[in-house]
Amino acid sequence: MTSPSGEAAVKILGQAPETSFKVKLILMKKIYHLAACNTCQRIINELQLPAGFELQEIKTQPMTETQVDQMRSLAGSYESLFSKRAQLYKQRNLKEQHLSEDDFKDLILEHYTFLKRPVIIIGDQIFVGNSKKVVEAAKQAIHP
């Protein structure tokens, strides 16, 4: 039996512990979202998710550093995961600051609103945000 994180699959596949991260990514079907976000909910409904997807509501179940690092490894940067439309971004006048990759990571971990959402992970593919192009690509990955 496999846990949602895919840990049991490591034993089944006989992989060494250092390769477990890669095995977990191959098995992962996950969406990071906000339940109160109408756009996230509309997209989740539109995707017509098959069984096996894990939904993580990031306000009630905060992301871990490991999860954010996994997202970054797929997306290529923390900045690509960062929402510059967040109210706190404007309130803190962050646009006027030169933010490093570490700053983007720290801000995402500090408050869920800084994550561009939804974040959809399907194996080794990641889809970040709510643009029509991103949502359509996620649909194609889910329903090839």
Quick summary of this structure?
This protein has helices at 7-13, 20-27, 38-47, 65-75, 87-91, 101-110, 132-142, and strands spanning 29-33, 54-57, 119-122, 125-128. With 144 residues, it is of the alpha+beta class.
Distance between the termini: 26 Å
Secondary-structure arrangement, i.e. CATH architecture: 3-Layer(aba) Sandwich
Main sheet strand line-up:
2-1-3-4
**Which percent band covers the strand fraction?**
5-15%
Query: Which CATH top level class fits?
Result: Alpha Beta
CATH topology-level fold name: Glutaredoxin
Kindly report the average pLDDT value.
86
Number of helices: 7
- How many strands, what sense, and barrel or not for the largest sheet? 4 strands, mixed
Counted up, domains total 1
Radius of gyration, in angstroms, nearest whole number: 16 Å
Order of helices and strands: HHEHEHHHEEH
- Secondary structure class reads alpha+beta
Give the assembly state of these chains: single chain
Could you list the spans in which at least 5 consecutive residues all have pLDDT below 50? Answer: 1-20
Number of strands: 4
Say which CATH homologous superfamily is assigned.
Answer: Glutaredoxin
Shape: globular
